[in-house]
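Researcher: Next entry in the queue.
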Amino acid sequence: MKSWSIQARLTLWYGAALSISMVLLGAGISWVLETSLFRDIDQRLQDHIVETGRIVSKELAEHDRAEALQEIRESLSASPGERSAVCDEKGALLYKAPELDFTCPQSVFGYRNLQVRSEPFRALVTREGPYTIFAAASTRHIHSALSRLRWILLLSVPLILLIATGGGYWLSKRAMAPVEEITRTAHAIGMRNLSRRLPVPPTGDALQRLSETLNDMFARLESAFQKISQFTADAAHELRTPLALIRTTAEVALRSGQPDEYKDALPQIVEETARTAVLVEHLLFLARADAGGTLPVNSAFQLESVMLDVVESARKLAAARGIELSTPTHISQVELHGDAAAMRRLLLILLDNAIKYTPHGGSVTIAMNRSAIEITDSGIGISAEDLPHIFERFYRADKARSRDSGGAGLGLSLAKWIAEAHGASISVESRAGVGSKFVLHLPD
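Model: Structure for this entry, 444 residues:
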């Protein structure tokens, strides 16, 4: 079953709300008008009774009974619109309008509605001094006015509802036009045109904020897609060289068919395989970082223990290259939360880079306190134009990086991610031909 459009639902709710409002308004107007008109006629009846009581008292006081009754009859019959009847204190009828069928009541007083010759009347029976007075006034004009009002409401309300709902549907369609445009544009955005953006209506409302938010999301998706594409291309490029070298070495050995060739080829294949394994491991680590992955282990560990282990490994590397490694005599005790193995990898990357790019006879110095670990070398340094890019993936400065002396340009980007995962950061100071200083700033 096809659901209704949002325009139709908005119009339906608007029409229902307007219908209820119009019905309540019409009923309220009718009730207020009826109450007001009957209040006015009740006041007229009350005034008429007071005037009638005054006339009766005056005529009976100034004339004999017969003459007084004649005067009362003439005075009361001359009142336009009202019908009257008067009884004295003994219940004798003093006057009655000709069309009334009235007898003097004994205890029934107050307002009432009645019919006199098929005409509606509003009547009041009450005592005014010693007299019981009945006064009635026609309410035909009230019922006629109320009837006209109800017919007007009955005919106008559907017309107003029709016009209002039609206008509401048209307005809702115009209001939803930007949403339709956003929907069409969003459907058109794909892998090949991620740079396209949604139109932003300058309305200053939720629709504008939605468009801006979606455009920000598309910008992030475009950036992520570009990074993934670049990452894939760079990874394929880096893997192609060692795989081609392994294949070429093996093919040459196989074509020669000589045992000596096999013996020479196997160490090369093992070396390239090990280097490729390290590259793949780095790629997997960074892929997990891009996917929002966390460190494999998150527990407390002592950084000084990790540091001592890394120093022992670095000492062997430095000795093999004839580099003097200066280590701190005292290592501060620092407790971190995270992955001790990942932190060891970070420190090894920094020390390995320092040793790798320091020439024979140079020096590497390690310093550590509770807030930072500093690794300073007297190596070839990094040029000013290369310095801002050294933490980018697969970036290798032409002078300082080569496949023979270095890796694929993933080490520092990997170290940066590990540091950030532990709440730390890495800064670097370097001058070409002078050396570099990498500082691992520890979290508080």
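Model: The chain has three domains: 6-164, 206-290, 299-441.
Researcher: Noted, moving on.
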